[in-house]
Amino acid sequence: MNIFPLNIKNLNYMSKDKKILKDINLITSEKKITIIAGNNGSGKSTLLKILHGIIQHTSGTINWGEIPVHEVRKKQSMVFQNPILLNRTTFENIVYVAKRKNIETNESVDKIIKQLNLESIINIESKYLSGGEKQKVAIAMSIISNPKIIFLDEPTSQLDPVYKNEIENIITSLSEKNTKIFMTSHDIAQINRIGKEIIFLDDGEIIFHDKVKDFINEKGNSIIRNYVNYG
User: What band does 1 get if pLDDT is binned at 50, 70 and 90?
Assistant: First the structure.
């Protein structure tokens, strides 16, 4: 399944008579980690959710290669800033998703547990897990079906440095194994560490779309310079 290029044309989104996204146009074939960034209220999480299909854009088109959108959505998953887990053990959470996806349970679940080093918390109920542990379980649930695309909404914003580093390593590892990552982040150091491409929004409009290294070195736009210097 070749999902590239992603082609967005004249995409708009309105909520309660307010225009949140304004004439979004972009084409990208970046296969690794694309960061969607911007100051609070810029529309970055809205764009992420539209790409995943959680919310419907008001106008415009989204095309993934030559593949119908409904087919692409069968091969993608999302991890939220505040993980959505069942009030069950880590093992039971992962098994629940595996069964819903009609995946061979034992072998697949064991593989994911080892891949994300979840052995020590496998029998602990989700309500007793730390924020970092919950995020790892949420990622495990999202990758059990080997998605082609994973959307992550600020997955490390509430984590301490140790778990932030671990989650970043997991995300990078997934991207190196041909899983396309779209991720929102407000952490400029993180963007610089793991991002390859960045879509930067301001007041619902794209004001920069290119390589992260070029974003970091951008001199001509004061909004971007302030973000890079103080983000």
Answer: confident
Using alpha carbons, select from 36, 38, 82, 42 the residue that is nearest to residue 231. 38
**Would you call 9 exposed, middle or buried from its count of C-beta atoms within 10 A (0-12, 13-18, 19+)?**
middle
* pLDDT score of 71: 92
Distances (CA, A) of 53 to 31, 43, 48, 70: 20, 15, 9, 9
Left (φ > 0), alpha (ψ -120 to 50) or beta: where does 106 sit?
alpha
Whole-angstrom Cα distance, residue 201 to residue 211? 15
**135-183: pLDDT as tens digits:** 999 999 999 999 999 999 999 998 999 999 999 999 999 999 999 999 9
- pTM for this one? 0.95
User: Domains in the chain, ordered, with CATH?
Assistant: 6-84+147-230 (3.40.50.300)
